[in-house]
Amino acid sequence: MIRPNRRVKQKEIADEVGISKARVHHILTTVLGYRKVSARWVPRQLTVEVKAQRKDMCNQFLERYNAEGEAFLQRILTGDESWVHHYDI
To answer: Mind listing the GO molecular function terms for this protein (predicted)?
Structure first.
């Protein structure tokens, strides 16, 4: 059940097989060596101060863009950070 659908829930497996959810968890983790890896996005709650700082920075950027034009935009660098883990025995 896990190979075709890695998002299957332990309760679904327990209902299908007819055993307890705790037993399914034991079999998946201990016997088969699987582990659940999940990421969840949580909305950030911004404080009034942080919102004010962001607004001030945006106004400063807008003023610089109005004064300098496209030259200001050409100096902005953007990037993405990637983490790579390499394990060599």
So the answer is: nucleic acid binding
> What is the predicted pLDDT for the residue at 56?
96
Amino acid at position 10, single letter: Q
Residue 60 corresponds to which amino acid? Q
User: How far is it, in rounded angstroms, from Cα 10 to Cα 80?
Assistant: 35
Q: Which residue has the higher pLDDT, 7 or 60?
A: 60
Q: Could you write out the DSSP letters of every residue in 9-43? A: -HHHHHHHHTS-HHHHHHIIIIIS-----------
Q: Are 25 and 8 in contact (CB under 8 A)?
A: no
Which of 23, 29, 24, 27 minimizes the C-alpha distance to 13?
Answer: 24
- Amino acid code (one letter) for 26: H
Judge contact between 34 and 28, C-beta under 8 A: yes
pLDDT at 2: 79
